[in-house]
Write a structure and sequence with these properties.
There is one protein chain. With about 120 residues, this protein is an alpha/beta fold. It has a single domain (about 35-115), classed as Oxidized Rhodanese, domain 1, CATH 3.40.250.10. The chain is about 35% helix and about 15% strand. The chain has helices at about 5-10, 20-30, 40-45, 60-65, 80-90, 105-110; strands at about 20, 35, 55, 75, 95-100. The chain has a five-stranded parallel beta sheet with strand order 1-5-4-2-3. The longest helix is centred in the C-terminal third of the chain and has 12 residues, at about 80-90. The chain is globular.
């Protein structure tokens, strides 16, 4: 239940933070969050998380409709820079989205699957 202060400030205590570390991202995905990779096609082909949906950054506005609006979204890129922008864009469209800090490199180092 939201605290009085949260309600007063219109904050949702269950909302995702803007960025998450890889351990939290892995938990979110394991719990059913959608994983979106916003890297370019050549980057995607060089290796990606098997459960990720590929939506290059430039197509996000048009292709976000492929995502479920009521399921959290973890956005990844190579390092975390593009994913921060993409997550903010998704939040502005009504999605509960967060960016994976450290990107695919952090994902790999934490034992996240890559194919």
């Amino acid at each position: 239940m939201a605290s009085f202060l949260d309600r007063l400030l219109n904050r949702d205590p269950d909302a995702l933070p803007k960025n998450v570390r890889v351990d939290r991202a892995l938990e979110l995905v394991a719990d059913g969050a959608q994983l979106v990779d916003v890297r370019e096609q050549s980057e995607w082909r060089s290796g990606h998380a098997p459960q990720a949906r590929h939506i290059p950054m430039g197509r996000l506005t048009n292709d976000a409709r492929r995502l479920k609006q009521d399921v959290p979204v973890v956005v990844m890129c190579a390092s975390g820079s593009r994913s921060r922008t993409a997550a903010a864009q998704l939040r502005s469209m009504g999605y509960q989205a967060t960016s994976l800090s450290g990107g695919l490199a952090a994902w790999r180092m934490a034992g996240g699957a890559v194919r």
